[in-house]
Amino acid sequence: MTPALPASSPPPNWVESNHPLGWLIDRLLAVEPLRWLLFWQARRLIIRTAEGRGIAWRQRRELLQRAAEPLLVSTTNPAVAVPPYYRARFHAYDAGNLCWAAACEAEQATASMALRVWPNEPELAPELAQSRLRHAIFSAIEPSLTGPVRRALDLGCSVGVGTFALRDWLLERQAAGEAFQSPEGFPAVAGDAEPSAATPSSLQVEGLDLSAEMLAVARVREAEQQISPVSSSGLALAPISWHHGAAEATGLPAAAYDLITLQFVCHELPQSATRAVVAEAARLLRPGGVIALVDQDPDSEVIRRLPAPIATLLKSTEPYLEDYFRLDLAAALQAAGFRDVRRAAVDPRHRLLVARR
Fold it and tell me: What is d(CA 71, CA 198) in angstroms, rounded to the nearest whole number?
């Protein structure tokens, strides 16, 4: 891992509103009939590509919705106020993330996203691609952890794909005895956890999301796992606590968490929301706790050189991409009180930023 620089590269040309290509894409997307045509084309391309790689997109959507609908009322916190930015039309859905279609296709879309990281491996199975993706993320987080992780929070958890992977990794980490030596570049500080005999049963993993539909699907997916309540390594699965709420105002206890993750969240936030979420994470983490944020890499040559048609489709479904690429996330972390900010490329498309409270 290398120290985070003051800023990443400028946004890709296709993102920049003041670049001819970015300007042209913005003008095209401003024409509503054309925008909807692009939405439809993007959705059609995503589903067709996914099903061609063995992802049962439509069948899985129907199964998840039937099982999740009865859980919606018990999942919803009626006191939650949805901020205006979250009502944007994410991912070609008119209601954005606040609908069953988005929730019941998130698992499939996440599997498809993992496959796109390695386009030159046509035989790569979706499950293996997802495992490889998460392994790279967690391996990059590991050097920042100086003690046991007893309580972890996945902000913007969606339907739990990353949350389950986080839980499984932390269980395996505990079973392996954990590494308590402070790694180079992260000296031990007051408040860091002391070595102890943590056990898998002491692990508490939580997920929080603004979409009650997403959380209902996460609960269905967790129930499916309980049919065989052990991880791939044979460890007993720790139950996950799901919270319906905003990541910038969680209502969760202060200084209570050892690790907070945001997995592919920040590109769906305006800059003001990202700063607010980072500030809330600083409140939630104990002294010495760690925040880890993985998302699109502004320095990725794959991202920067996307063909114009693909870039147009992507921008049509991601309303805050320019905000994301323009934000100096390392500086935002430091402004919120984080230190020892580090950055690492975890694959050809994505980067991880990790920092200590």
Answer: 33
